[in-house]
Design brief:
One of its GO terms (molecular function) is N-acyltransferase activity. This is Lysine N-acyltransferase MbtK. Acyltransferase required for the direct transfer of medium- to long-chain fatty acyl moieties from a carrier protein (MbtL) on to the epsilon-amino group of lysine residue in the mycobactin core. Pathway: Siderophore biosynthesis. This protein is α+β, with helices and mostly antiparallel strands. It has a single domain (about 5-190), classed as 3-Layer(aba) Sandwich (Aminopeptidase), CATH 3.40.630. The protein contains 6 helices and 8 strands. The protein has helices spanning about 25-35, 40-45, 50-60, 120-130, 145-155, 180-190, and strands at about 5-10, 15-20, 65-70, 75-85, 100-105, 135-140, 160-165, 170-175. The chain has an 8-stranded mixed sheet, covered by helices on one side. Strand 7 (about 160-165) and strand 8 (about 170-175) form a beta hairpin. Helix 1 (about 25-35) packs across helix 3 (about 50-60). The longest helix has 14 residues, at about 180-190.
């Protein structure tokens, strides 16, 4: 699998990479992840394979977002939706900048849960998104009940802004500003090897 972004993370001593989702290759894997008990409450996509096929096709054809598999040592273990705020429902909830980006994620493989991978993965994705020079802010809106994920976003450098009522959940709008993120993680990125 050709990765779109790869980075060695010294905190976990492993290589993290993000690979664009491919319909044929990844359909069954992603559908299986959506049936996992830890995923269902927050993604609500524990639907039939036929329905999920249509969902994935629609999402892959949506030009305002890119879908990725997050990998550790080239093993796919997480799913990511990196999106432009412009064109997303979230654009109605705050005065966005044209180059603001947003992020959704889940860890699909159960054996990767509770191992301390969520923060390094999130940090890598945010760094990947900030490679777009004109992006100054990354947005997240985790389910307000998902305290673990909110804590990971905060540890990464996201700040809570306000609760927001989305069609499928009450989310917590969170912002990660480039300058704060780069200052917070400068010591990590300065010493990492490619």
């Amino acid at each position: 699998m050709n990765s779109s972004y790869t980075q060695f993370d010294q905190d976990i001593n492993k290589t993290i990479s993000f690979v664009k989702v491919e319909y044929e290759r990844d359909l069954h894997l992603l559908h299986r992840w959506m049936q996992e008990e830890h995923v269902i409450p927050f993604w609500k996509l524990n639907i039939s394979l036929e329905k999920y096929k249509r969902h994935l096709e629609k999402f892959l054809n949506d030009q305002h977002q890119t879908l990725y598999l997050g990998c550790i040592e080239e093993i796919p273990m997480s799913y990511w939706e990196a999106y432009w705020v412009k064109g997303d429902i979230i654009e109605d909830y705050y005065p966005y900048d044209l180059f603001d980006q947003g992020i959704h994620l889940l860890i699909g493989e159960k054996e990767f849960l509770g191992k301390g991978y969520a923060l390094p993965l999130l940090r890598a994705m945010v760094r990947f998104q900030f490679l777009t020079a004109r992006t100054k802010k990354i947005v997240a809106e985790p389910d307000i009940r998902n305290k673990k994920m909110i804590h990971i976003f905060e540890t990464c450098g996201f700040e809570p802004v306000k609760p927001i009522e989305l069609p499928d959940k009450t989310g917590l709008l969170m912002f990660c500003h480039r300058e704060n993120f780069e200052r917070k993680w400068k010591h990590v990125f300065d010493t990492q090897r490619a």
